[in-house]
Design goal:
TIM Barrel; alpha/beta; Non-ribosomal Peptide Synthetase Peptidyl Carrier Protein, Chain A; globular; 2 domains; 13 helices
Amino acid sequence: MKNNFWQQLNKPIIALAPMAGITDSAFRQICKGEGADLVYSEMISSYGLAHGGKKSFNLCCFKEIERPIIIQIFGRDPKIMGEAALIIEKKFKPDGLDINFGCPARRVVSSGHGAALMDEPELAEKIVRHISKKIKIFLSVKTRLGAKKKTEIFDFAKRMESAGVQAIAIHGRTLKQGFKGEADWQPIYKTAKLIKIPVLGNGDIKNHGEIKEKLKNLAGVLIGRGALGNPFIFNQKEKPDFKEIKKVILKHASLAEEEKKERGLIEMRKHLCWYIRGIPKAKQLRQRLVQIKNIEEIKEILDTAYARCHCEERSDEAIQEMSRLPRPPTAASQ
Protein backbone atom coordinates (compact mmCIF):
# COMPACT_ATOMS: atom_id res chain seq x y z
CA MET A 1 0.00 0.00 0.00
CA LYS A 2 1.55 3.32 -1.10
CA ASN A 3 1.57 6.33 1.17
CA ASN A 4 -0.75 9.29 0.76
CA PHE A 5 2.00 11.73 -0.15
CA TRP A 6 0.27 13.78 -2.83
CA GLN A 7 -2.95 14.16 -0.88
CA GLN A 8 -1.01 15.54 2.10
CA LEU A 9 0.41 18.44 0.09
CA ASN A 10 -1.41 21.76 0.19
CA LYS A 11 -2.88 22.78 -3.15
CA PRO A 12 -1.89 24.40 -5.37
CA ILE A 13 1.58 22.87 -5.24
CA ILE A 14 4.40 25.23 -6.21
CA ALA A 15 7.46 23.07 -6.79
CA LEU A 16 11.08 23.42 -7.86
CA ALA A 17 11.53 21.45 -11.09
CA PRO A 18 14.44 19.01 -11.50
CA MET A 19 17.38 20.52 -13.41
CA ALA A 20 20.62 18.65 -14.07
CA GLY A 21 23.64 20.37 -12.59
CA ILE A 22 21.48 22.93 -10.79
CA THR A 23 18.99 21.51 -8.29
CA ASP A 24 21.53 20.18 -5.83
CA SER A 25 20.96 20.14 -2.08
CA ALA A 26 22.20 23.71 -1.55
CA PHE A 27 19.83 25.22 -4.12
CA ARG A 28 16.95 23.05 -2.96
CA GLN A 29 17.43 24.30 0.60
CA ILE A 30 17.39 27.90 -0.60
CA CYS A 31 14.17 27.35 -2.57
CA LYS A 32 12.51 25.58 0.36
CA GLY A 33 13.45 28.52 2.55
CA GLU A 34 11.79 30.87 0.07
CA GLY A 35 8.53 28.93 0.05
CA ALA A 36 8.77 26.03 -2.43
CA ASP A 37 6.21 23.38 -1.40
CA LEU A 38 8.14 20.54 -3.02
CA VAL A 39 11.61 20.04 -4.53
CA TYR A 40 13.04 17.52 -6.99
CA SER A 41 16.59 16.21 -7.15
CA GLU A 42 18.74 16.42 -10.23
CA MET A 43 18.20 13.70 -12.82
CA ILE A 44 20.10 10.60 -11.63
CA SER A 45 21.23 7.61 -13.69
CA SER A 46 19.51 4.33 -12.81
CA TYR A 47 22.55 2.51 -14.21
CA GLY A 48 24.85 4.43 -11.87
CA LEU A 49 22.71 3.51 -8.87
CA ALA A 50 22.32 -0.15 -9.83
CA HIS A 51 26.09 -0.48 -10.26
CA GLY A 52 27.02 1.35 -7.06
CA GLY A 53 28.31 4.54 -8.68
CA LYS A 54 29.53 7.03 -6.06
CA LYS A 55 28.45 10.09 -8.08
CA SER A 56 24.90 8.74 -8.50
CA PHE A 57 24.66 7.91 -4.80
CA ASN A 58 25.89 11.40 -3.84
CA LEU A 59 23.20 13.00 -6.00
CA CYS A 60 20.56 11.16 -3.97
CA CYS A 61 21.61 12.70 -0.67
CA PHE A 62 19.45 15.37 0.94
CA LYS A 63 18.85 17.08 4.27
CA GLU A 64 15.67 16.61 6.32
CA ILE A 65 14.92 20.31 5.89
CA GLU A 66 14.37 19.65 2.16
CA ARG A 67 11.33 17.46 2.72
CA PRO A 68 9.06 16.84 0.99
CA ILE A 69 11.53 15.83 -1.71
CA ILE A 70 11.28 13.66 -4.81
CA ILE A 71 14.31 11.91 -6.28
CA GLN A 72 14.27 11.65 -10.06
CA ILE A 73 15.88 8.86 -12.08
CA PHE A 74 16.29 8.12 -15.77
CA GLY A 75 16.89 4.96 -17.77
CA ARG A 76 15.25 2.63 -20.28
CA ASP A 77 15.83 -0.86 -18.86
CA PRO A 78 12.84 -1.84 -16.66
CA LYS A 79 14.90 -4.25 -14.56
CA ILE A 80 17.69 -1.76 -13.84
CA MET A 81 15.16 1.02 -13.22
CA GLY A 82 13.45 -1.26 -10.69
CA GLU A 83 16.74 -1.97 -8.92
CA ALA A 84 17.55 1.73 -8.75
CA ALA A 85 14.07 2.52 -7.40
CA LEU A 86 14.48 -0.02 -4.59
CA ILE A 87 17.91 1.36 -3.66
CA ILE A 88 16.45 4.87 -3.42
CA GLU A 89 13.49 3.72 -1.33
CA LYS A 90 15.55 1.65 1.12
CA LYS A 91 18.73 3.69 1.43
CA PHE A 92 17.60 7.30 1.03
CA LYS A 93 13.88 7.19 1.93
CA PRO A 94 12.67 10.24 -0.01
CA ASP A 95 9.00 11.23 -0.06
CA GLY A 96 8.66 10.13 -3.66
CA LEU A 97 10.35 8.83 -6.80
CA ASP A 98 10.03 10.45 -10.23
CA ILE A 99 10.82 9.00 -13.65
CA ASN A 100 12.27 11.31 -16.28
CA PHE A 101 10.50 11.00 -19.60
CA GLY A 102 11.01 14.66 -20.49
CA CYS A 103 14.70 15.61 -20.78
CA PRO A 104 15.40 16.89 -24.33
CA ALA A 105 19.22 17.07 -24.02
CA ARG A 106 20.85 15.60 -27.12
CA ARG A 107 23.19 13.25 -25.25
CA VAL A 108 20.24 11.92 -23.22
CA VAL A 109 17.83 11.52 -26.13
CA SER A 110 20.41 10.06 -28.53
CA SER A 111 20.84 7.09 -26.18
CA GLY A 112 17.08 6.51 -25.97
CA HIS A 113 16.50 8.11 -22.58
CA GLY A 114 14.46 11.04 -21.27
CA ALA A 115 11.94 12.46 -23.73
CA ALA A 116 12.94 9.85 -26.34
CA LEU A 117 10.74 7.38 -24.45
CA MET A 118 7.65 9.33 -25.46
CA ASP A 119 8.32 7.79 -28.86
CA GLU A 120 8.25 4.36 -27.18
CA PRO A 121 5.11 4.55 -25.03
CA GLU A 122 4.89 0.77 -24.60
CA LEU A 123 8.39 0.64 -23.10
CA ALA A 124 7.68 3.69 -20.92
CA GLU A 125 4.55 1.98 -19.62
CA LYS A 126 6.46 -1.23 -18.95
CA ILE A 127 9.08 0.67 -16.92
CA VAL A 128 6.41 2.34 -14.80
CA ARG A 129 4.53 -0.92 -14.16
CA HIS A 130 7.72 -2.67 -13.12
CA ILE A 131 8.74 0.08 -10.68
CA SER A 132 5.22 0.55 -9.32
CA LYS A 133 5.09 -3.10 -8.23
CA LYS A 134 8.46 -2.88 -6.46
CA ILE A 135 8.22 0.25 -4.33
CA LYS A 136 5.85 1.65 -1.72
CA ILE A 137 6.85 5.29 -1.95
CA PHE A 138 4.99 7.73 -4.15
CA LEU A 139 5.68 7.41 -7.88
CA SER A 140 5.40 10.21 -10.44
CA VAL A 141 6.51 11.03 -13.97
CA LYS A 142 7.81 14.21 -15.59
CA THR A 143 7.35 14.41 -19.32
CA ARG A 144 6.51 16.64 -22.30
CA LEU A 145 3.59 17.16 -24.68
CA GLY A 146 5.01 14.55 -27.01
CA ALA A 147 8.00 13.59 -29.12
CA LYS A 148 6.76 15.36 -32.25
CA LYS A 149 3.09 16.25 -31.73
CA LYS A 150 1.47 18.12 -28.84
CA THR A 151 -1.43 15.68 -28.74
CA GLU A 152 0.72 12.64 -27.90
CA ILE A 153 0.44 13.49 -24.21
CA PHE A 154 -3.25 12.47 -24.07
CA ASP A 155 -2.61 8.76 -24.69
CA PHE A 156 0.74 8.84 -22.86
CA ALA A 157 -0.80 10.27 -19.68
CA LYS A 158 -3.55 7.64 -19.69
CA ARG A 159 -0.89 4.93 -20.01
CA MET A 160 1.05 6.39 -17.08
CA GLU A 161 -2.04 6.51 -14.88
CA SER A 162 -2.98 2.96 -15.79
CA ALA A 163 0.56 1.73 -15.06
CA GLY A 164 0.54 3.06 -11.51
CA VAL A 165 1.79 6.66 -11.60
CA GLN A 166 0.25 8.84 -8.88
CA ALA A 167 0.94 12.23 -10.49
CA ILE A 168 2.34 13.61 -13.71
CA ALA A 169 4.20 16.85 -14.45
CA ILE A 170 4.07 18.06 -18.05
CA HIS A 171 6.37 20.56 -19.77
CA GLY A 172 4.46 22.53 -22.40
CA ARG A 173 6.73 21.74 -25.35
CA THR A 174 7.48 18.69 -27.47
CA LEU A 175 10.84 16.95 -27.68
CA LYS A 176 11.23 18.35 -31.19
CA GLN A 177 10.85 21.90 -29.85
CA GLY A 178 13.44 21.55 -27.11
CA PHE A 179 13.20 24.92 -25.37
CA LYS A 180 12.33 26.90 -28.50
CA GLY A 181 9.10 28.85 -28.87
CA GLU A 182 6.56 29.39 -26.12
CA ALA A 183 5.32 26.64 -23.84
CA ASP A 184 1.75 25.62 -24.73
CA TRP A 185 -0.34 24.99 -21.61
CA GLN A 186 -3.63 24.17 -23.35
CA PRO A 187 -2.79 20.46 -23.91
CA ILE A 188 -1.77 20.29 -20.23
CA TYR A 189 -5.18 21.60 -19.13
CA LYS A 190 -6.89 19.10 -21.43
CA THR A 191 -4.80 16.25 -20.03
CA ALA A 192 -5.94 17.18 -16.51
CA LYS A 193 -9.54 16.58 -17.65
CA LEU A 194 -8.70 13.16 -19.11
CA ILE A 195 -7.09 11.57 -16.05
CA LYS A 196 -7.82 11.44 -12.32
CA ILE A 197 -4.31 11.76 -10.89
CA PRO A 198 -2.84 15.22 -10.12
CA VAL A 199 -1.40 17.06 -13.13
CA LEU A 200 1.25 19.76 -12.74
CA GLY A 201 2.26 22.18 -15.47
CA ASN A 202 5.74 23.40 -16.34
CA GLY A 203 7.24 25.88 -18.76
CA ASP A 204 7.99 29.62 -19.03
CA ILE A 205 6.83 30.77 -15.58
CA LYS A 206 8.97 33.88 -15.13
CA ASN A 207 7.49 35.54 -12.05
CA HIS A 208 5.22 34.82 -9.09
CA GLY A 209 2.27 36.60 -10.68
CA GLU A 210 2.19 34.12 -13.58
CA ILE A 211 1.65 31.16 -11.26
CA LYS A 212 -2.01 31.94 -10.62
CA GLU A 213 -2.58 32.65 -14.32
CA LYS A 214 -1.21 29.24 -15.30
CA LEU A 215 -2.89 27.07 -12.66
CA LYS A 216 -6.50 26.87 -13.87
CA ASN A 217 -7.55 23.19 -13.38
CA LEU A 218 -4.08 21.93 -12.41
CA ALA A 219 -2.91 20.61 -9.04
CA GLY A 220 0.16 22.81 -9.21
CA VAL A 221 3.16 24.02 -11.19
CA LEU A 222 6.85 23.22 -11.47
CA ILE A 223 9.22 26.17 -11.82
CA GLY A 224 12.59 25.59 -13.45
CA ARG A 225 14.50 28.33 -15.25
CA GLY A 226 12.30 31.00 -13.64
CA ALA A 227 13.89 30.18 -10.28
CA LEU A 228 17.49 30.64 -11.47
CA GLY A 229 18.84 33.61 -9.57
CA ASN A 230 15.31 34.18 -8.31
CA PRO A 231 14.30 31.62 -5.66
CA PHE A 232 12.04 34.40 -4.36
CA ILE A 233 9.60 33.48 -7.15
CA PHE A 234 8.04 30.91 -4.83
CA ASN A 235 6.63 33.47 -2.40
CA GLN A 236 7.04 37.01 -3.71
CA LYS A 237 5.77 38.96 -6.69
CA GLU A 238 9.02 40.87 -7.23
CA LYS A 239 12.68 40.29 -6.48
CA PRO A 240 13.64 41.82 -3.13
CA ASP A 241 16.16 44.63 -2.77
CA PHE A 242 19.89 44.14 -3.20
CA LYS A 243 20.46 43.78 0.55
CA GLU A 244 18.11 40.78 0.79
CA ILE A 245 19.48 39.22 -2.41
CA LYS A 246 23.01 39.52 -1.01
CA LYS A 247 21.92 37.75 2.19
CA VAL A 248 20.46 34.82 0.23
CA ILE A 249 23.51 34.62 -2.05
CA LEU A 250 25.86 34.28 0.90
CA LYS A 251 23.66 31.64 2.52
CA HIS A 252 23.54 29.72 -0.78
CA ALA A 253 27.33 29.94 -1.15
CA SER A 254 27.82 28.72 2.42
CA LEU A 255 25.57 25.71 1.81
CA ALA A 256 27.34 24.94 -1.46
CA GLU A 257 30.75 25.02 0.24
CA GLU A 258 29.48 22.86 3.11
CA GLU A 259 28.11 20.29 0.68
CA LYS A 260 30.88 20.11 -1.92
CA LYS A 261 33.83 22.10 -0.54
CA GLU A 262 35.83 23.92 -3.27
CA ARG A 263 33.84 22.32 -6.08
CA GLY A 264 30.65 23.70 -4.55
CA LEU A 265 31.94 27.26 -4.86
CA ILE A 266 33.08 26.68 -8.44
CA GLU A 267 29.58 25.41 -9.30
CA MET A 268 28.17 28.39 -7.41
CA ARG A 269 29.65 30.79 -9.98
CA LYS A 270 26.80 30.24 -12.44
CA HIS A 271 24.24 30.92 -9.70
CA LEU A 272 26.04 34.17 -8.82
CA CYS A 273 25.67 35.36 -12.41
CA TRP A 274 21.95 34.57 -12.35
CA TYR A 275 21.41 36.33 -9.02
CA ILE A 276 22.83 39.66 -10.23
CA ARG A 277 20.74 39.94 -13.39
CA GLY A 278 19.24 43.40 -13.52
CA ILE A 279 21.72 44.92 -11.07
CA PRO A 280 23.55 48.04 -12.38
CA LYS A 281 26.85 47.18 -14.12
CA ALA A 282 26.09 43.46 -13.88
CA LYS A 283 28.51 42.69 -16.72
CA GLN A 284 31.51 43.93 -14.74
CA LEU A 285 30.29 42.05 -11.67
CA ARG A 286 29.96 38.80 -13.63
CA GLN A 287 33.56 39.09 -14.83
CA ARG A 288 34.68 39.06 -11.21
CA LEU A 289 32.18 36.57 -9.83
CA VAL A 290 33.07 33.83 -12.34
CA GLN A 291 36.55 33.79 -10.84
CA ILE A 292 35.71 33.61 -7.13
CA LYS A 293 37.46 30.97 -5.01
CA ASN A 294 36.01 31.62 -1.56
CA ILE A 295 33.07 33.20 0.23
CA GLU A 296 35.11 36.22 1.36
CA GLU A 297 35.67 37.16 -2.29
CA ILE A 298 31.93 36.92 -2.95
CA LYS A 299 31.20 39.11 0.07
CA GLU A 300 33.78 41.71 -0.96
CA ILE A 301 32.43 41.94 -4.51
CA LEU A 302 28.83 42.20 -3.33
CA ASP A 303 29.71 44.79 -0.66
CA THR A 304 31.37 46.94 -3.29
CA ALA A 305 28.38 46.56 -5.62
CA TYR A 306 25.94 47.35 -2.82
CA ALA A 307 27.87 50.47 -1.81
CA ARG A 308 27.89 51.68 -5.41
CA CYS A 309 24.17 51.01 -5.86
CA HIS A 310 23.44 52.79 -2.58
CA CYS A 311 25.47 55.82 -3.64
CA GLU A 312 23.74 55.94 -7.00
CA GLU A 313 20.34 55.76 -5.30
CA ARG A 314 21.34 58.65 -2.99
CA SER A 315 22.53 60.65 -6.01
CA ASP A 316 19.25 60.00 -7.82
CA GLU A 317 17.31 61.13 -4.76
CA ALA A 318 19.39 64.34 -4.56
CA ILE A 319 18.79 65.07 -8.24
CA GLN A 320 15.05 64.52 -7.84
CA GLU A 321 14.99 66.76 -4.76
CA MET A 322 16.82 69.52 -6.62
CA SER A 323 14.37 69.26 -9.52
CA ARG A 324 11.55 70.05 -7.10
CA LEU A 325 13.16 73.28 -5.87
CA PRO A 326 11.89 76.56 -7.39
CA ARG A 327 14.05 77.75 -10.25
CA PRO A 328 16.19 80.85 -9.60
CA PRO A 329 14.95 83.96 -11.41
CA THR A 330 16.52 84.56 -14.81
CA ALA A 331 18.14 87.84 -15.81
CA ALA A 332 15.17 88.69 -18.01
CA SER A 333 12.67 88.20 -15.16
CA GLN A 334 14.70 90.42 -12.85
